[in-house]
TrEMBL record:
Residues 235-387 form the Acyl-CoA dehydrogenase/oxidase C-terminal domain. Gene3D superfamilies: Acyl-CoA dehydrogenase/oxidase, N-terminal domain (1.10.540.10), Butyryl-CoA Dehydrogenase, subunit A, domain 2 (2.40.110.10), Butyryl-CoA Dehydrogenase, subunit A, domain 3 (1.20.140.10). InterPro entries: Acyl-CoA_Oxase/DH_mid-dom (IPR006091), Acyl-CoA_Oxase/DH_mid-dom_sf (IPR046373), AcylCo_DH-like_C (IPR036250), AcylCo_DH/oxidase_C (IPR009075), AcylCoA_DH/ox_N (IPR013786), AcylCoA_DH/ox_N_sf (IPR037069), AcylCoA_DH/oxidase_NM_dom_sf (IPR009100), Mycobact_Acyl-CoA_DH (IPR052161). Residues 7-123 form the Acyl-CoA dehydrogenase/oxidase N-terminal domain. Its EC number is 1.3.99.-. Coiled coil: none annotated. GO terms for cellular component: plasma membrane. It comes from Paraburkholderia sediminicola. This is Acyl-CoA dehydrogenase FadE17.
Length: 398
């Protein structure tokens, strides 16, 4: 059987499984739980993670010796595309399965892999990411959260993290903290794994413009990170963090693009209903959005093309460096197009109008795309310095 036939069979298998299982009690999860909608049905989406695990659809790219399926990049692309096409809900387990799990496989101890990977794979343990701080968002090297080693070799953590997605629905958090008080910049940082259900940790929701609160502030007041839950060595946190960010530019990008395709379809439908589908300027902007999606897809495939050959899976190509900048600006423009298509109705709030509310959600959330996970300005610096080898931008002192 040739590879093309095998891939077609896999595509049918995934589509059939999704059709059978994303039904009944899970039917309400279709197209829910994505960016800007992450508060939707959290308990049921956790149960959906267990459903996926029972079908063998977690850890697709993980090595078999770590419980994964060791799928090729091409096969993983097929899964993510068919998952999104079927309306698969936003993954509650994404941070664990897509980011922390591969990082522990690459950088963790055998003990850490034995303790944490099974819960991630079977959908019973959920993680959030403790990177950003009030004064260290895009500039991760400026973190001030500190960790002090006690007489037992454990770490006591003090500080604050912010914009922590779904911390209130998570069991564990991985934290970048400064363990060398004399260090500056990206030196002297460590990567710690911490249970959230403990004294010394307080989670406060951040209320957003649309009424949701999927983001949180997390405060640490002497919270415990056990000695065995340090990943790498003390001071090795920057390398671990960059390894994890390499996985963030990974396979889930294809699923993200399927969500973008759906949103563009919503915009086109709204344009027809509003009677502006034949407006030359609107048509031109829709065509530009459609073309942009194709550019995004081909760049993502190019970005992932060498992943099978890279055993570590963490090398960031030049194509990966431009990805976030491209999609975030494209998505922000789509959000603005959605409002322009709706016209004056875009300013009216009516919870009974699901289509309008959905497009308003796209607009509101897309305004943050060029800020979180590295602002446009930071992304351009990364492209210039790491991708093109240009001199570092002068950093002034305050």
């Amino acid at each position: 059987m040739n590879s093309q036939t095998q891939q077609q069979r896999l595509r049918v298998e995934v589509a059939d499984w999704m059709s059978t299982h994303l039904s009944g009690e899970f039917n309400c999860l279709q197209y829910r739980g994505g960016p800007g909608d992450e508060e939707a049905y959290p308990a049921l989406r956790k149960k959906w993670e267990r459903e996926l695990a029972s079908g063998g659809w977690t850890g697709l790219g993980w090595p078999k010796e770590q419980g994964g399926r060791a799928m090729s990049v091409a096969d993983q692309v097929i899964f993510h595309e068919e998952y999104a096409r079927a309306g698969g809900p936003g993954r509650m387990g994404h941070i664990g399965e897509g980011l922390l799990g591969p990082t522990l496989i690459a950088c963790g101890t055998e003990d850490q892999r034995k303790r944490f990977l099974p819960g991630i794979l079977n959908g019973t343990q959920f993680w959030c990411q403790g990177y950003s701080e009030p004064g260290a968002g895009s500039d991760l090297a400026n973190v001030r959260t500190r960790a002090i080693r006690d007489e037992n070799g454990n770490w006591r953590v003090h500080g604050q993290k912010v914009w922590t997605s779904l911390a209130h629905d998570s069991d564990w958090i991985f934290v970048i903290a400064r363990t060398d008080p004399e260090s500056r910049g990206n030196r002297g940082l460590s990567f710690l794994l911490m249970p959230l259900d403990q004294s010394g940790i307080e989670i406060r929701p951040i209320k957003q413009l649309n009424g949701g609160a999927e983001f949180n502030e997390v405060f640490f007041d002497g919270a415990l990170a056990a000695a065995e839950d340090l990943v790498g060595s003390p001071g090795d946190g920057w390398r671990i963090a960059m390894t994890l960010l390499g996985f963030e530019r990974g396979m889930s990008t294809l699923g993200q693009q399927m969500q973008f395709i759906r949103e563009l379809e919503w915009v086109v439908d709204a344009a027809r209903e509003a009677g502006v589908a034949n407006d030359p300027l609107i048509r031109q902007r829709i065509a530009r959005a459609w073309s942009g999606l194709r550019v995004m897809r081909y760049n993502a495939l190019r970005m992932l093309a060498g992943a099978d050959a890279d055993e570590s899976g963490v090398a960031l190509s030049r194509e990966a460096l431009i990805y976030k900048y491209y999609w975030s600006n494209w998505h922000r423009e789509l959000g603005q197009l959605a409002m322009d298509v709706l016209g004056p109705d875009a300013n009216l709030i009516d919870s009974a109008d699901a289509k309008r509310t959905r497009l308003q959600g796209v607009f509101l959330f897309s305004r943050a795309d060029t800020i979180y996970a590295g602002t446009n300005e930071i992304q351009l610096n990364i492209m210039a310095e790491r991708g093109l080898g240009m001199p570092r931008e002068p950093r002034g002192t305050l």
